[in-house]
Fold:
Amino acid sequence: MRKSLLRSLQNRNTEMFVLREDGSQLLGPPGFNAQPQADSLPAKPLPLVSVKEAQRGLNSYRIETWLDGHTYLTGFARSSGYRDYPGLGWLVLVRQRTDVAFAPAQRLQHQILAWNVALGVLFAILGWLIAEHITRPMLAIATAADRIRQGNTKINIPVVQGRDEVANLSRSLNRLVSTLTMQENDLKISNQQLQMKICELQKAEESLRSSEEKFRQLAEHIQEVFWISDPDVNEIIYISPAYEQIWGKTCESLYANPNSWLDAVYPEDRQHVFPKDRENTCGNYSVEFRIVQPHGSVRWLWTRTFPVRNPRGEVYRIVGLTQDITERKQAEETRQELVQEREISELKSRFIAHASHEFRTPLTAIKMSAAMLEKFNHKASVEQKNRYFDQIQTGVKRLTQLLDNILIISKAEAGKLEFNPTPLNLVDFCHSLIEELHLGTGDQRQITFITQGYCNQICLDETLLRYILTNLLSNAIKYSPQGGNVQFDLICDKDVIFRIQDCGIGIPMADQANLFTSFYRCSNTGKLPGTGLGLVIVKDAVDLHGGQITVESEVGVGTTFTITLPLKCTHATATV
Structure:
């Protein structure tokens, strides 16, 4: 069996091993671990992976290195029994060196490689020929395209005749190049236009930069506060540095809180900073107001605003200029004080002249009457003596009235003129006053007194009311012609109205503005007696009542004074 198995494999350079179940050699080629079966020495198992896999019952092959250091293609299998016979469990290994085992495959591989090379060369030649046929028009197209890319736009893409893809591509490219050439021309024109616009924009930008620089030089070096805001002044777009000098606050604080500038406005002026009809002013208005600086000083400011309109005519910006006019205001106040002092001086001069005349007339009458009594006391009759005494009393009365008027004016100017309203029956009061005037003056001019409404228990200051009515009625009598009529109306409705109308010389229009100025007399009074204090007393008394006085007059026709006093009763005492 050894000869029959081993000899048949030797011709194919193949060796076979029969191993026991434990992997020790039972049969093998000559010269490889051969031991007689009867040998008493135990055989060693082969330390191969294939042996172990065969022991597990696997039938396969693997490439592994044997004990002689060579690499073999090893096939392995385990013997099996037959029917009920389990068999001996021998392991069969067949090995062949890898260089011998794979020699046919390598020869086949070399042959396949040679054929592949030959076929590759053949197909390469055929492909080159086909590619040259296909790419020749493509190369012409590419060459033309490259020249076009270099700037030669007069080159046309060659059109290949036919219906294949290359022909379609050449026609499409030709149309594309024509379109691109036209677009390039349009692009050049657009580029030129764009360059012109860029130049214009650069010039405009340079002009704007120059304008902005000039604007900043102007806005940041003027003493006035220049500012720009939205139409509602709820956002400050620009504020000049002069704001910090005038307001004493930083510009950043105003940007953060656009209404913070109002905090410095004088409390009494806050209502007047913005006009009531600001919406109708279209952003164009002018206002003067005061501010209190952080260190406590008060400054007068003048703000003027101007609207800025967009192309649609809508106001979208407000430009303002705020100027410190404190020095101008102080100069105006000084000038007004000087004017007032000059006017007062003139009025005092006039008053002295009139007062001297007023004092001199009754004093002269008193002096003459006293001299006559002294000289002709024993010779004068009782009637003559009484006439002299009446002249003295009349002169004293005029002096007393003149001094009373001066005292009242002094109290009013010093704020010591008292207001003590008490309930009065105005009808009785007026009748009594008219009788006193007739008895006191002996004047024959008629006073027509008409009442309307319920005029009992009206709360007025009797003393002040007497000043008012006495002066007005006396003036009406004094400046009316002999036999003239004085109309005196009393109306009690929602307010108390006194209306005194005469048909006298009237008041020139130029004098009406100064009627209630101390020591002022109208230009047409001539030599008629008077001090220019009566209407001043009337105006102060009316103001203490919280009322109003109006005058209507025409020269040569007459004058109407209307006094309106509120119809209310209060027992409080006030002073002016």
